[in-house]
Amino acid sequence: MPRIIRLAAAQLGAIHNTDSRSHVVGRMLALLESAASQKVQVVLFPELAFTTFFPRYIIHDEQELEAWYEHGDVTTNAETRPLFDKAKELKIDISVGYAEATEDGRHFNSCIYFSGREGRVLSKYRKVHLPGTAEPYDDPDAVNHLEKRYFTPGDLGFQAFRVPGLEAGVPSGERGEPIFGMMICNDRRWAESWRVLGLQGVEVVFCGFNTPAFAPHTRNSLDKDPEQSERMALFHHKLVMQAHSYTNATYSVSAARSGYDDGKYKLIGGSCIVDPEGVVLAETQTLEDELIVADCDLELCRQGKGKTFAFEKHRRTEHYGRIVAQTGVIEPPRIGAHGQA
Ligand code: CDT
């Protein structure tokens, strides 16, 4: 029996340093209205969706820095609340990324899954893999990526969660409650993030992202040509979304913050919805605010989960110890002059 749900990615184009949260939320509301008019059930918004990608700036003033984070409850704070109120009004679920400041003074790059039908947060994820550096580069022309300075690595792990009530006609029960998971941007490049979700039977992975089109200091110092750099950034983004969707037999939805922030910091687009065979079902065509929609039959996950990637039949965990025992590379010893190690 088909288990079809309608999913969307809401890409957000340029957000400038000076753009207020209210301005951005206004744009998100327009995307949400458009999704509702197309009978979408779940909309993914990008990583750090309410502001520009502030980790590119070095900010020494504590008050100025704190103003980039959401303090208290993001679903009820004055400037961000309209998004969640609209989701409730439209009875549409959303996943959205934001900079979280906790009561005890910690800072996470987080996202939540908010059920508009139930009017509450069903799950929260805090980004585990923080790219970039804690200190700015010496080169004054470099584009900094200071996530390691402004955030603490997530402490919640990769927790899959069930969302009942999305599949029309499918009774609640094992197959009637889709299994969702969330990750954020750089997490998508790590097979480990996906496999931990895959091991919980995930059927849809949501991933918001901010990926610079050109970042030779952070990403690839050989990449001196901005156009080639952007092509490769887009290629790697789609490569990991497609490959990891396939090897974990799951749908994935990714939503970009894209465009030229402040008219000069370019972020790639390429928001896409991928099926469990690794096929791209929908992809954005611009760097602007744009919604893509796809009907996803979760039964299609059964093929991979039951055959090629039936983990319980084929995985050989006795050989995977290094994955959790070791962080960096330990190379094998050199072969000696007489062929001995
Ligand atoms: N936001 C985020 O995680 N971005 C990284 C950029 C790394 S290279 C500058 C990414 O993996 O896309």
The 3D shape can be described as globular
**Helix/strand order, N-terminal first:** EHEHEHEEEHEEHEHEEEEEEHHH
Main CATH class: Alpha Beta
Structural class: alpha/beta
* Domain module tally: 1
**CATH architecture annotation:** 4-Layer Sandwich
Strand content: 15-25%
Q: What key phrases describe this protein's structure?
A:
alpha/beta, seven-stranded mixed sheet, binds 4-methylsulfanyl-2-ureido-butyric acid, Nitrilase/N-carbamoyl-D-aminoacid amidohydrolase, 341 residues
Q: Describe it for me?
A:
Helix 1 (21-37) runs parallel beside helix 3 (81-90). The mean pLDDT is 95. The chain is globular. It has helices at residues 21-37, 62-66, 81-90, 147-150, 191-198, 226-247, 300-306, 311-314, 321-325, and strands at 4-11, 42-44, 70-71, 93-101, 107-115, 120-126, 161-162, 179-184, 204-209, 251-256, 259-261, 265-267, 272-274, 280-283, 290-297. It has 9 helices and 15 strands. The strands form 3 sheets. Strands 1, 2, 3, 4, 5, 6 and 15 form a 7-stranded mixed sheet that branches. Strands 7-8-9-10-13-14 form a 6-stranded mixed sheet, covered by helices on one side. Strands 11-12 form a two-stranded antiparallel ribbon. It has one domain: Carbon-nitrogen hydrolase (Nitrilase/N-carbamoyl-D-aminoacid amidohydrolase), CATH 3.60.110. 43% of the residues are buried. The longest helix is centred in the C-terminal third of the chain and has 22 residues, at 226-247.
